[in-house]
Design goal:
The protein has 277 residues and is of the alpha/beta class. The protein has twelve helices and five strands.
Length: 277
C-alpha cells in the first residue's frame, strides 16, 4: 500500500516542481527566445492612439501617362498587389484624369508632367485635381530635368516626383508612401528645386526694381496695352498724341529690358504689376 502513496506524492511534486522555476525566470533574466526586443511595444488592438498606416488599408490609385508600356507595366503590378486598387484603367490625357479624380477621389494620382499635343499639361491637371480633392496626393512621374517645371508642379500641389526610370514596383511603393503623407523627392532633385526657387526669387526682386522705375503714365499705358489697345486708341483715350504714346512705349521697353510691347505686358503680368481677367 506504500507504493500508491509514493506515486501520489510524485504526482503532486510533478504538478508543482516547474511552476516556481518558471516564475523565477520571468521575474529575473528574460529569455531572448521569449521576450521581445528592447524598445518594442506591441499596440493593443483596442488602443485608441494606434495609428493606421498606408499598408493597413487599400490605396486607391489613378495612373495618367501617355506612355503605354509604362502604364501597362504599372497596371500589371497593381493587379498583383492586394494593398493597391486602380479606380479605372490607366488614362492618357489630363482631362480624363481630372474627370475620374473628381468622381472617385483617389488616394493617389500618378501623373505625367508633359503630354503629346497642345492640350493640358500634367501641372494644370494637378492643380485642378487638388482643387477638386485636396486630400488626393498627386505624384509627378517625369523624364524631364527642367527645374522650372518642377517648381510649377510644387506650386500646383504635387506631393513629390518620381523618375520614369524607376522599376514599376518602386513607383508603386512610392505611391503607398504618398498615400501615407510622405513627401517623395530625392536629394539631388530637391537641391535643384531649391536652387531654382532661389533664382526665381532673385528674378522677382530684380523685376520689382525695374517695375518701380516706371512712371504713373507709363504704368497706365502698359495697362492699356494689356487690354489689347493700339497706340492710336491709347492716344485718344488719354488725350495725347500718338507720338507721345510711342515715346512712352519706347521708355517702357527700355526700363523693363524687353524687346516688344507683348513681352512688356507678359513681364508685367508675370510679376504682378498688371491684373488680368
Amino acid at each position: 500500500m506504500a507504493a500508491p502513496r509514493v506515486r501520489g506524492r510524485a504526482r503532486e511534486r510533478a504538478r508543482t516542481v516547474h511552476l516556481p522555476r518558471h516564475r523565477a525566470r520571468t521575474r529575473g533574466r528574460c529569455d531572448a527566445r521569449r521576450c521581445p526586443p528592447r524598445g518594442y511595444h506591441p499596440a493593443h488592438p483596442a488602443a485608441p492612439e494606434a495609428k493606421v498606416s498606408a499598408t493597413d488599408r487599400i490605396v486607391s490609385l489613378l495612373i495618367c501617362d501617355d506612355h503605354k508600356l509604362l502604364t501597362d507595366a504599372l497596371a500589371t503590378v497593381v493587379g498583383l498587389d492586394e494593398e493597391l486598387h486602380l479606380i479605372a484603367p490607366p488614362v492618357n490625357t489630363p482631362e480624363e484624369a481630372i474627370r475620374l479624380a473628381e468622381e472617385h477621389l483617389p488616394n493617389v494620382v500618378l501623373m505625367d508632367i508633359v503630354f503629346k499635343g497642345d492640350g493640358m499639361s500634367g501641372i494644370d491637371a494637378t492643380r485642378r485635381i487638388k482643387e477638386a480633392s485636396p486630400s488626393t496626393n498627386v505624384v509627378i512621374m517625369t523624364a524631364h530635368d527642367d527645374e522650372r517645371l518642377l517648381v510649377e508642379a510644387v506650386e500646383a500641389g504635387a506631393s513629390g516626383f518620381l523618375s520614369k526610370d524607376e522599376a514599376a514596383v518602386e513607383i508603386l511603393a512610392a505611391a503607398k508612401a504618398a498615400a501615407d503623407g510622405e513627401v517623395l523627392i530625392d536629394p539631388a532633385t530637391l537641391t535643384r528645386l531649391l536652387a531654382q526657387v532661389a533664382r526665381q526669387r532673385e528674378e522677382q526682386r530684380d523685376a520689382l526694381v525695374l517695375l518701380d522705375d516706371l512712371t504713373d503714365r507709363e504704368r497706365e499705358i502698359l495697362g492699356l496695352l494689356a487690354q489689347g489697345k493700339r497706340n492710336d486708341d491709347i492716344a485718344r483715350e488719354l488725350y495725347i498724341s500718338p507720338q507721345t504714346v510711342q515715346t512712352h512705349v519706347r521708355n517702357i521697353l527700355g526700363k523693363l529690358r524687353v524687346h516688344s510691347k507683348l513681352e512688356a505686358v507678359s513681364f508685367a503680368v508675370k510679376h504682378g504689376a498688371i491684373q488680368v481677367g
